[in-house]
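Extended Data, panel c. Modelled sequence:
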Amino acid sequence: MERFQNRLLGHLFPKDPVELLDALRRECDRHAVRCGRNRILAPNAYAVELDPEVHERLAGAGDRVGMLLTDRLARHGARNGYEWAGPLAVHITRAADVPNGRYRVAGRVMPHVRADGFAPTTE
């Protein structure tokens, strides 16, 4: 399954699939917050803005790309012991003004997450 995912990413992002995944991982790590001795909370909503040309190439893949990136980010979170601030999702959109000419990544907590979701758990 992992080989299939790697081939799909390589096909969809022939220039830099690893770079995009690394950008997602860095965004996740940068915004992860330690909420207790054994609890690290990470944002659960990630926006990947793509250059119009790249977005057009991905249009045929539909939701598969977002699901694939979400799966890879979930694995990263599991390896690092992250808890998500809600259901994890990666949304892909089109943007004309991406800084590197290919993509921009931003992570945030979905606004419907309740404040008590950040309360420390009893261990």
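The longest helix spans residues 64-80. This feature is highlighted in the accompanying rendering.
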